[in-house]
Hints:
This protein is an all-alpha fold. Helices cover 75% and strands 1% of the residues. Strand 1 and strand 2 (100-101) form a beta hairpin.
Amino acid sequence: MNRYEEIELQQDLEQVEKYLSGYLRDPGYGSAAGQILRDMEMSRGKRLRPRLLLMASRYGSEFQGSRSRLCRLGALVELVHMASLIHDDIVDDAPLRRGMPTTQSKYGKDMAVYAGDLILSRIVQSLFRDGFMRVGAYFGDTVEAMCLGELGQMEYRGREDITVDQYMSNIYGKTAALCRLACVAGAVESGCSEEVTSQLEQLGLNFGYMFQIRDDLLDFISTSAEEGKPTQVDFREGIYTLPVIYAMQDGQYRPRIIRLMQLAKKGGFGAAEEEELKALVVDSGGLAHASTDMKIYAQKAMRAVENLPDHGVSTVFRELLHKNM
């Protein structure tokens, strides 16, 4: 990507922020809703999904004439992510998100539920009002997948019989589906061919799987200080990630991990138990096995990049993959 294209991409990301401000506008009738929406606007994430959408759109023949609509779509994809985080924090009873009080901890669970629903309603309004008919069904499919992923995670919460297949099904909804949507929406709206759209879909899907497994691995190789959040929160809450699932496949280590699971259910999982779990996951090969899977998904995503037409943004995709491996 040349300097001009980099500037163009940055300008589009700035336009995404302007659209987000509009979508998160105060409804104007003096309720707490306006403050909640302002809090959401201030709680800025990495904007990874809008970036994926805008990068994918660069392969389309209609890109230049669709830039404004693509920026609006980027904002809508980010809004889906925001709404899902509000609802996740309610379920997890999380006090903080990115170092700031969560909506549910600051305003209560009832207000948080309706705030997430309010954001979703504005997404639906825009999809119809602004004529995003070609990608509207993809948004619906993605929200359904996200709900099913969370329901699957809840169903297997605290269960020792969770399988790798069930885990992968859950993280498709939790992470991969939205990355897939970002790439497909950018491709469709910018006029990419079916072949290019298919490659971008594979890129988004496999990037999402890679990204989630990487996040699960960091829980075992980083400290709370390094991550800016407590580690092993998922395990304490009965959510067993890929390194743990693989470790439990070894009969030598399974009983010891189950003992830690039982301690966590009783609230007896402290710093010593956390270190023991990390050692078990490493010694059993669970961490290495999950790391191999992450690299496989990264390679699949990279193959999709190599199958795309030669374009400057391909280099950015490669850099993004290497950065998150």
